[in-house]
């Protein structure tokens, strides 16, 4: 049991460090190709925080542990809102100005509802994966086009996430090394998670929904808290909403396109609807003029704690 826990921690550390290396390398390469800092910060940085979920889900699905794969997506999306947004708002109240958030938040809810609809037959097949990936492609096109309409101060804030002066050769090394590290870290994490579930006598679904989901959300937690401390509310909310969209459309879409998975009745009737409920909480940010107060962050954290406690008690 101790060895399995150590392997889990090592896997999480490798995943987090590799995601950071991959993102930094990809950002520098994109800047070298002449892509604007704002577009890079708007897209590649957001993708980098979802890279751990992608490789972990693919690794789990290919190993036949689909509960960990699906639990990781559902649990990560819940953690992004309840844990990451809650912690970030406690660090500093968030007041965002990004126009795209007024569209992105409803898109998160729409994607969550789409997932609920696709799950009605208790499986995610390759056709469902194609639908989700098509949605991701459309999202990328829309993001790039809408980015041009953002206010100058938002472009400056988001563009800072793409700053860096790495030599191009080092960026390529980080890019390739980060990718290799993600694959190795995901293998360690999934193997350890399955073994821990067996040792504790709990389901792989619960481990995927809690331990693995929080672990793969570490890049979002670190980025969210750091951005909140610097007063960059647009980065916090943009990364959270973008990560949830990427998790559903890209991560789950790629996973089930490669390896279809079956779903239990409780996942379809309870767990995915709970993910939709947490997504609906993002509407509060729109209703409040894209402001998240500290007391709202405390409520989100309490809601997430209750969610985890309920899942474990099940």
Question: Can you describe what's shown?
Answer:
The protein has 314 residues and is mostly helical. It has a single domain (2-313), classed as NCX, central ion-binding region (A middle domain of Talin 1, Up-down Bundle), CATH 1.20.1420. The protein has 13 helices and 4 strands. The protein has helices spanning 2-32, 37-62, 66-91, 101-118, 126-147, 152-159, 168-200, 204-216, 218-229, 233-258, 265-281, 283-287, 294-313, and strands at residues 94-95, 123-124, 261-262, 291-292. The longest helix is centred in the middle third of the chain and has 33 residues, at 168-200. It starts with a helix and ends with a helix.
Question: What is this structure's SSE topology?
Answer:
Blueprint: H1 2-32, H2 37-62, H3 66-91, E1 94-95, H4 101-118, E2 123-124, H5 126-147, H6 152-159, H7 168-200, H8 204-216, H9 218-229, H10 233-258, E3 261-262, H11 265-281, H12 283-287, E4 291-292, H13 294-313
Task: List the keywords.
3% strand, 4 strands, mainly alpha, A middle domain of Talin 1, 13 helices, 314 residues, single chain
What's this entry about, in short?
By secondary structure, the chain is an all-alpha fold.
Q: In percent terms, what proportion of residues is strand?
A: under 5%
User: What's the domain count?
Assistant: 1
Q: How many strand segments?
A: 4
CATH superfamily: NCX, central ion-binding region
Arrangement of strands in the largest sheet: 1-4
CATH topology: A middle domain of Talin 1
Name of the CATH architecture: Up-down Bundle
Radius of gyration: 18 Å
Helix/strand structural class: mainly alpha
Terminal-residue CA separation: 22 Å
Low-confidence stretches: none
Number of helices: 13
């Amino acid at each position: 049991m101790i060895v399995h826990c150590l392997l889990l921690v090592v896997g999480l550390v490798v995943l987090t460090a590799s995601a950071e290396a991959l993102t930094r390398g990809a950002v520098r390469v994109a800047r070298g190709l002449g892509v604007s800092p704002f577009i890079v910060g708007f897209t590649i940085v957001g993708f980098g925080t979802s890279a751990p979920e992608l490789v972990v889900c693919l690794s789990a699905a290919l190993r036949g542990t689909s509960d960990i794969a699906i639990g990781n997506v559902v649990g990560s999306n819940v953690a992004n809102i309840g844990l990451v947004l809650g912690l970030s708002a406690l660090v500093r109240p968030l007041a965002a100005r990004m126009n795209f958030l007024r569209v992105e938040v409803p898109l998160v809810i729409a994607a969550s509802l789409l997932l609920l609809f696709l799950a009605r037959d208790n499986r995610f097949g390759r056709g469902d994966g194609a639908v989700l990936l098509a949605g991701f492609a459309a999202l990328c096109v829309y993001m790039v086009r809408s980015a041009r309409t953002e206010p100058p101060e938002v472009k400056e804030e988001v563009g800072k996430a793409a700053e860096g002066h790495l030599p191009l050769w080092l960026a390529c090394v980080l890019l390739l090394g980060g990718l290799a590290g993600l694959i190795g870290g995901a293998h360690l994490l999934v193997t350890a998670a399955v073994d821990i579930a067996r040792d504790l006598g709990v389901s792989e679904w619960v481990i995927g929904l809690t331990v693995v989901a929080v672990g793969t959300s570490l890049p979002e937690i670190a980025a969210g808290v750091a951005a909140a401390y610097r007063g960059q509310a647009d980065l916090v909310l943009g990364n959270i909403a973008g990560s949830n969209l990427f998790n559903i459309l890209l991560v789950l879409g790629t996973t089930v396109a490669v390896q279809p998975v079956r779903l239990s009745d409780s996942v379809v009737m309870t767990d995915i609807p709970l993910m939709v409920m947490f997504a609906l909480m993002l509407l509060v940010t729109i209703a409040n003029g894209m402001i998240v107060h500290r007391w709202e962050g405390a409520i989100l954290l309490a809601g997430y704690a209750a969610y985890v406690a309920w899942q474990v008690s099940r």
